[in-house]
Structures are given as C-alpha cells and as structure tokens.
Amino acid sequence: MMIVFTIIIDRLQARGNYWADRNAGNLMIWRRVNAELMMFGIVAISIFIFSNLVGTIPETTFLIVEFVDILCSCGCCALILIAGILLIMIRRMSQHYKEYEQAEDVGPGTSYKTMGVKELRVVKDQDQSESEPEETLLADKKSSTMNCCRVRNINKAEWQAMVFMWKDLHKVPHNFKYHDYLKRCLQCNVCNVMEISWPTWAMQLVVCLLGWFIRQQRKGAVDSNTYMLQMTCLNWASVFVHVGLVMYVYLAQSAFLVEARKALASGAKKVESSLTKDWSTNVRFIAQNLAFCNAFLMTMFFMHEWSNLKGYNWSWYVLLALPWLFNFVYALPFIVSSTAWMEAFLVLDPDSMEMLLEELQADERDMKFVRERWEALGKPKFDTDEGYSEEEMDELFTSLGFHISSSRNKRLFIILDKDDSGMVDAEELLLMLNDKQAFDSLRELQREASAA
After folding, report:
1. pLDDT (tens digit, 9 = 90+) per residue, 159-188?
2. pLDDT tens track for 193-218
3. How many CB atoms lie within 10 A of CB 79?
4. Which in 75, 92, 197, 379 has the greatest CB count within 10 A?
5. Nearest-CA neighbor of 14 among 39, 34, 41, 44?
6. Which CATH number applies to 356-451?
7. Which of 185, 167, 175, 110 is nearest to 359 (CA)?
C-alpha cells in the first residue's frame, strides 16, 4: 500500500513539474506549494524525533502534540486548496480577458487615442427602436457585453481602451499581452496568500495565547454544547469580516472605474486614482490572514467538530460549514482577483512585468537559436504532411541533428501551439524555420482572424 501511495505522489509531482515548466508564473506557484508541503513534512518529522528522544511522554500530552501536528499539516493542505480554487479563478479570468483584449488594429504606434470612435462605442440592447440612439460612448449596466464575473460594470470597449491607455503610458513592446501581465499579477497574489509572513504568524500566536489564557481561567474545557456555539459564532464572525472586506474592495473598484471612465472620456494619458501601493499591500495582508484563519477553521471542522456533532441536528453541520465554504468559494477569490486587477493597472508590478518581458525575449531567442541551427545543418527537409505533438517535435529535432534541450523544445511547442490543441502544424514549423518575417505575418493574420 505504501509503495502504491509513493508512486502516486511521485507521478503527481512529475505532473506538477510539467505544468510549472510552461511559464514563470506557474513555476512560482508550484514552488510555493512545494514549500508548504515541505513545511508540514518537517514539522511531522521533528515531532517524531522529539517524541523518541524525550522518551516516555504522558498519554494526554502525546495526544495533544499529535493533534496539533495533524492540525498544522491539514492547515497547510487547506492553504493549498485555497490556492487551487484561486487558480481556477485565474484560468477563467485569463481566458475572459484574452478575448476582451482582441482589437481591430494593434499595430506599432497604435494607442487608445487612435483606436477610433468605433472601438469606444458599443451597441446597447438589440431590441432598441430605430428612433432611439443605437450607440453610446460607454455602455450602461444593461449592455450585453458586460463582464459579470469578477470586474463589475466594464464592457469590452472600455477594457480595450483601458489596456491601450496602459500600454501607451508604459511603452511596452508591440507583442506585449496585457492579459498575460494581469495573469502574472494574479499568480503573485495567490502566492502571497500561501506565503505566510512573520506579522501573520505573530497575530496567530497572539490568538493562540489568548485562547490558552481563557482556558486556564476556566480551569478546563467547556461542555460540548458551549463549544459548538462558540465555534459557530467564530465561523460566522469570519463571514462578517470577509463581507466587510469584500464591500471595501468593491467600493474601491467602483471608484476606480468612475475615474477610469472620466480619463477615457477626456483623453487623459492615465487614470488618476487615490489607490496606492500601500492600499493594495494592506488588503493583501488582511486577505493572507483571512486565508490562514479559513484554513484552520476548515481543518477544525473535519478534525474536531465533525466527531462532536454526532447526535446533533443536521442544521449544525450547515451552520459550521457554510461560513468557510462561502469564504473559500466567493469572498477570497473576489478579494484577491479584484485587488490584483486594480493593482495591475494602477501600481506597476515590476516582478510580473519582468517575468513577462523575459518570456517574450526568451521566445525570440529560442526561435533564433533553432533557426540558426537549421541553417547551419543545411536546412534539412522533413515531412510537412502531418502535425507534431510535443514528443514528436522533440524526436524530429533530434533526427534532424538539432539536439536541443527538452525545456527549449517545450517553449517552442508552446509558441507554435497557439490554439492549445496539443499539436503543431508542420508547415507552420517550417515557416518559422525558413522565414521569420513570413512567420510573424502569419501570426498577425491569425490574431486578426481570432479578433474577427
């Protein structure tokens, strides 16, 4: 049984490594997950060694130590679960804004000011009568193109104009994708949730000491009914804190959108907002503490409260589980995503920017390297009738004498597999090797086709 379990863990680790190699953001999150797993592994081993060195430990003390060990381990796993939920949110948002960012003309020198009136106008309700205006500069909340997922009251035209304003302000390269930059910012915020800071640990330690002091004053544990009532109140108190922070972030987001619309209407070069880096730092710190508390509330539910609920009415399960479920599924994803969305636009994230610019430069270096190798080998021919998977493309390069590393092959495959089909068109591969300008032109035509 242990051998099977070890094999499963090893394969999951290998799959995680493959996923992390696709970009720097994934790698950053995967390293954070490994750090969490390593932390509770070290805690478990340390307690095991300590218990054997000390010798005989009273049974009551041993049970308490073992409970705390499992509690901390499950708490780390709960943090990873929160990160998993946030990653699902990132995937959905990234795809959504990838579609939003498509524009008619994104050539060099284009800015939000030169997009034209057509790009900043959106059609209102389709059933509107001909006597009424059919277009408006900024669509109202009833517009069919509204984004109702994470960012309230913003449509495609507004998003495109804001992105062009940001690109024009920061003078990024032509092929810089803002939705990729936003994705990196979201990934950084997910890592921030898992990367517990010293102030957070200090606050949790104060809470633990306070609980210990209260218990000492009572001279023993409370009865089961009182305990259940206390945990229910604690869980719902966490909901009220989450709702308060959600409203705070939502109001800040609404104020930002008002300022953004004013900037777009006036043709300003940037959005003037009262939100600062300190604001986002404070919100992320509070979100980190809330995620930490949620992790242990969920762990306490399954480890302790579940067994104590035997004989109680089913409504107690709902009262105890619903708060952290709400916090996990809605409150924290909203707080993290909305904060990252505003922070990415207003406060330039140097880490996310550098990661993305390095990836763009790495793409150019990889294509230049393989193109030079192909020319040095005399431009050997290969079959262009069928497509290639990642493994088949690696075998093709080896047979042609390229002998490139597996990591470079993976990066090249990602460059060529723009539709995420798992296959690379052979003729497109040949075009990349043979003619850089033609390959770039093909990419531009594909982009325009997807925009249409």
Report:
1. 888 888 888 888 887 778 888 888 888 888
2. 877 788 888 887 888 788 778 777 77
3. 26
4. 75
5. 34
6. 1.10.238
7. 175
